[in-house]
Design brief:
- The chain is an alpha+beta fold.
- The chain is built from 6 helices and 8 strands.
- The protein folds into 3 domains: 96 residues, Helix Hairpins, CATH 1.10.287; 50 residues, SH3 type barrels, CATH 2.30.30.60; 87 residues, 2-Layer Sandwich (Alpha-Beta Plaits), CATH 3.30.70.
- Helix 1 runs antiparallel to helix 2 and helix 5 packs across helix 6.
- The chain starts with 13 loop residues before the first helix and ends in a 35-residue tail after the last helix.
Length: 301
């Protein structure tokens, strides 16, 4: 049994204590609601990703799920803040009215912020950028780690992180959508046989596709476009291999490594620049303006 008589000393502080308990209850309720919504969104996201028809749809579902969770956190936080202020005796109506006026004034000065959110919305709806893509936007390129309605977080190859506001994105170059091509420009010397080089490239591509590690990454056989240019010291051959997204760099590096070994075995020379220095011959006409020195007798300086 609780001896209520012994708690009489709390009576003067009871209103404050009651208000504090309500605030704690609001905060606890907000935490529970946030946890439930986050778990529910996580389950829906995983279930939808498991039923996705392809990897592209799965990446889009993952990105949209993260954005929804971020948005839900902001909404729950705002509602919780208003309820706590109301419980503390702070009138919400003037705050909401002032927020409307301030929002209208800020709207004119924060058009770039509004543009960020609108652009971010359409980036998600049109499935232009997803978490896990490698993209180039606003002059920056890297691996997409996070996408929100406000910005995109990129991780560069050197580990540098780029935060790009969505309003700055006018063109998106996505290098990991559906498939990719590993493009190679390979130079051989002018005295090397082009047919032998083509045969060596086809052998390398066939061996690479039969490899248990690199074979699953390749979608089609090698495509040789032919001689792309006649450079100063090389005949440049252009070719490409269709691969899965994000595999173009790994396949390209391995193909070039094996091509070097195949060219060495086939006697196909990979050129390097040559330079010939001409010193001139006796009787050559000197350059314009140059003055030839006349031979001097011995003893005269």
């Amino acid at each position: 049994m609780i001896d209520w008589a012994s708690l009489e000393w709390l009576r003067p502080w009871w209103p404050e204590l009651k208000s504090a308990l309500k605030v704690l209850a609001i905060l606890a309720g907000a935490w529970v609601v946030h946890a439930v919504i986050a778990r529910l969104l996580g389950r829906v996201r995983r279930a939808a990703a498991a039923r996705a028809a392809d990897v592209e749809s799965s990446k889009w579902i993952e990105t949209v799920g993260r954005v929804l969770r971020y948005t839900a956190s902001i909404v729950i936080g705002l509602i919780t803040a208003m309820l706590v202020l109301n419980e503390l005796g702070v009138s919400i109506a003037p705050i909401l009215g002032a927020a409307g006026v301030v929002g209208l004034a800020v709207g004119f000065g924060a058009q770039s912020l509004i543009k960020d959110y609108f652009t971010g919305f359409f980036l998600l709806v049109e499935n232009q950028i997803r978490v896990g893509d490698v993209v180039e936007i606003a002059g920056k390129s890297g691996f997409v780690e996070e996408v929100t309605l406000r910005r995109v977080k990129l991780r560069g190859y050197d580990g540098a992180v780029h935060y790009v506001a969505n309003g700055l994105i006018t063109t998106v170059t996505n290098m990991s959508t559906e498939f990719a091509f590993a493009v190679m420009d390979i130079g051989i010397s002018y005295r090397s046989n082009i047919g032998a080089a083509f045969d060596a490239l086809r052998r390398v591509a066939a061996e690479l596709r039969a490899d248990p590690e690199f074979g699953p990454r390749i979608l089609e056989d090698l495509q040789i476009a032919g001689v792309d240019s006649l450079a100063d010291s090389a005949v440049v051959i252009r070719c490409r291999i269709k691969v899965k997204p994000l595999e173009q760099w790994n396949v390209r590096r391995e193909f070039l490594r094996r091509t070097k070994e195949a060219f060495d075995a086939a006697g196909v020379e990979i050129p390097f620049p040559h330079r010939t220095i001409y010193f001139g011959q006796p009787g050559d006409v000197p350059a314009s303006g140059a003055r030839q020195s006349k031979p001097q007798p011995d003893g005269i300086a």
